[in-house]
Amino acid sequence: MLASATAALTATSIAAIPPATAQDMPTGWCADRADLTVLGPSSETGYGTTGYDSPDGTYSPTPHAWVAQFARAADATWNTITDVHARNGAMIWDFLPGGRWPSTVAALDAIRDTQPDLVLVGGVFANEYLNNWDLAHAERNLRRLVTELRTARPGVDLVFTIYPDIDWPESRRPWADWAEVIQRVATDTGTRVIDLRPLIDTPYNDTEGHWSDDHAHLNDHGQTEVAQHVWNEFETWTRRC
């Protein structure tokens, strides 16, 4: 669907993206869309979509994985190269020095090497929420990651995505509390946010078949909806450059 990028994706934007300013122009996405990096947990690996078969829980560009759909569209439209460092189960601290997996820890070094124009951190706090992490600790990790990303690539544009509300029954805090912190960090650090909560309802209220049977991961339909929405946000932003 996204291979015909500009013709296929015309849905109305839900998450408002502010107009680009003169500060966007010299170094980030508005100046050059050559390279983009995606970090995230299973929401960015393609897990839950048909054909996902990564043996180590990392990214697999299945036909319906939202990151893969977006990457194909960005390549077709802007010749953008998308580098994905995502791992099932990852938390924000896994992308910092001392993280659990070489594939996530390597992300900062890769960003230093490739100097992407934009880094998208997807599924922020999804696994911290599921594992009942301390919210203040998670916030400190996110702020540190922003600092590390901007040190590795000065002038980079950053985007967070807020995952749809899973409404996890064992969670001690509502997802809204976590989303509020993501929004606060974004505001404080000049990071853009794409909030997916208005797009897709919780697994227990969803009537459109967006979720896998585990009630935690989006299926082919759900990830295609995300891909279309994120693409629309980027197109809107890019037209304002």
Automatic annotation (TrEMBL):
Residues 49-223 form the SGNH hydrolase-type esterase domain. Keywords: Signal. Gene3D superfamilies: SGNH hydrolase. SUPFAM superfamilies: SGNH hydrolase. Residues 1-22 form the signal peptide. The keyword Signal applies. InterPro entries: SGNH_hydro (IPR013830), SGNH_hydro_sf (IPR036514). Pfam families: Lipase_GDSL_2. This is SGNH hydrolase-type esterase domain-containing protein. The lineage of its organism: Bacteria, Bacillati, Actinomycetota, Actinomycetes, Pseudonocardiales.
